[in-house]
From TrEMBL, chains A, B:
InterPro entries: MraZ, MraZ_C, MraZ_dom, MraZ_N, MraZ_sf, SpoVT-AbrB_dom, SpoVT-AbrB_sf
SpoVT-AbrB domain location: 7-54, 83-126
Record protein name field: Transcriptional regulator MraZ
Keywords (A to Z) from UniProt: Cytoplasm, DNA-binding, Repeat, Transcription, Transcription regulation
Cellular compartments per GO CC: cytoplasm; nucleoid
Places the protein is found: Cytoplasm, Nucleoid
Chief place where the protein resides: cytoplasm
Organism: Pelagibius litoralis
MF term (GO), any: transcription cis-regulatory region binding
One Pfam entry name: MraZ
Ranges where the record places region Disordered: 133-153
Length: 153, 153
DNA sequence: TTGACACCCATGAAATCCCATGATATCCCA
DNA sequence: TGGGATATCATGGGATTTCATGGGTGTCAA
């Protein structure tokens, strides 16, 4: 099972390269594509990242939605058409395309955030704000983890 | 099932390393990640610890929520972004990151407290105070543990 | 020919490995 | 059941590796 946990801030060099955190690289190791799959988040000023295995899962899930429905098309267009395969170089870095950097407002620093089965890439300051907001919402709405069974376990 | 009970105080050396109690290590043995997963407790000045199996459960449950929904993102961000994987070295020690030490006020000693399926890491003195308070509350409110039968589960 | 990009090497800081030590707990046999 | 032999454990510190980062060079295509 893919596990992305933690927050890591790395530098973006003049060529637009960033090191993907070593722990993330390890969970991505051994997949059919040696790198990450990334696309613009449509909800936030961030880049979504995952491994090729997860992308395959998403394709499978989306294909369960009625083909030719508006939802299907919108999802497919937003996510799949925008996705890019970003291969690792010899030292575990990826090239963040300019379009992605623009979308997330990333210039010389990038923050990788584990989201469980996928991760996001943010401008470090924007991420801090987002984290605080997410925490507040989670608390005020008393969000809890769904349990597998009936009640508390 | 993971079981963490008891209290153990160990030293934090100059490199920031602490031995995880051997009994805890045994219940953590054989998981997909050889180490602990830790995050700041939002209720106390302590670090929460668990095994990767626990985190995988959390991920599985969060992933039951619609992907890219606000609820999913808020939960995932809140839970996973501030967690860290802390691997064991050859002798069963972990490196306590500075941020965690700051949060818990830990300098040269750390107390590991079993909490059932999780454990906590405290500054020994803070833990003593906390234990006394918890005992008092439990006594004055006559707290009970729900049984599996009639009531909550 | 001029970017964009893949590949290569170098570097310092930080994390990890490895070995040694003493203390404690456990085992085993009388 | 006592007590010595043996293993386990926590701890310390030096050596080694990993990691993030910087820059150079070659190659391909516009």
């Amino acid at each position: 099972m893919a596990v992305f946990i933690g927050t890591f801030e790395n530098k973006v060099d003049q060529k637009g390269r960033v090191s993907v955190p070593a722990v993330f690289r390890q969970t991505l190791a051994g997949l059919s594509f040696n790198g990450i799959v990334a696309f613009r988040s449509h909800r936030a000023d961030a880049i979504e990242g995952c491994g090729m295995d997860f992308m395959e899962q998403m394709i499978a899930r989306v294909s369960e939605i009625d083909l030719f429905s508006e939802t299907h098309d919108d999802l497919a267009t937003t996510i799949f058409s925008d996705s890019q395969q970003l291969p690792f170089d010899g030292t575990g870095r990826i090239m963040l395309p300019q379009g992605f950097r623009d979308h997330a407002g990333i210039t010389d620093r990038a923050a990788f955030v584990g989201m469980g089965q996928l991760f996001q890439i943010w401008h470090p300051d924007a991420l801090e704000r987002h984290k605080a907001e997410a925490r507040d919402r989670a608390r005020s709405q008393r969000l809890t983890i769904p349990t597998g069974g009936g009640g508390a376990r």
